[in-house]
Amino acid sequence: MKNALVSLALCFAAVPGSAVATPGEVSEGGTLQQIPMQGLTGGSKLLGDYRGKPLIINVWASYCPPCLAEMSSLERLSKRYGKQFNVIGVSIDDYPDRAQAFLVQAKTSFPHFIDRRLALENMLGADRIPLTVLVDADGKILRKVYGAKGWDSPETVEAIGKAFGLRM
């Protein structure tokens, strides 16, 4: 596991992490809390419903061009490896209609939620977006990646597989 985290850190070395900065933020190595999530593309869920399988959480907003730019690579990643881990999106928009318009452009099939109360935004430390958080099957944060990325590039897929302990 330690080597996997080193590989993941090297893959994302150009994207600096963040110190604990938002109220109630869970830092890397910490365990996410059980929190309700309001559905944008389906029903509402509890974050804990995703335990038991690794999870990639992408935090975005409709006013963020880099967020839209990376959505297609997250969609490809989700479609190709969705049996090995889950991918979800979390909008920090105040207005669901703006978030819905963004999703029409993004054309993704993985679940999206909206965080109008800032609970997820603060817990994940989304003081900059896009933010993508890799979470193990027990809800522990392995890595936070700030900024847009090509999530389906061979080196990123390899780093994700190593972090999650999966063959990809």
UniProtKB/TrEMBL annotation:
It is found in: Cell envelope. Gene3D superfamilies: Glutaredoxin. Residues 1-21 form the signal peptide. Keywords: Cytochrome c-type biogenesis, Disulfide bond, Redox-active center, Signal. InterPro entries: Redoxin, Thioredoxin-like_sf, Thioredoxin_CS, Thioredoxin_domain, Thioredoxin_ResA/DsbE_sf. Coiled coil: none annotated. SUPFAM superfamilies: Thioredoxin-like. It comes from the Bacteria. Residues 26-166 form the Thioredoxin domain. It holds the Pfam family Redoxin. This is Redoxin family protein.
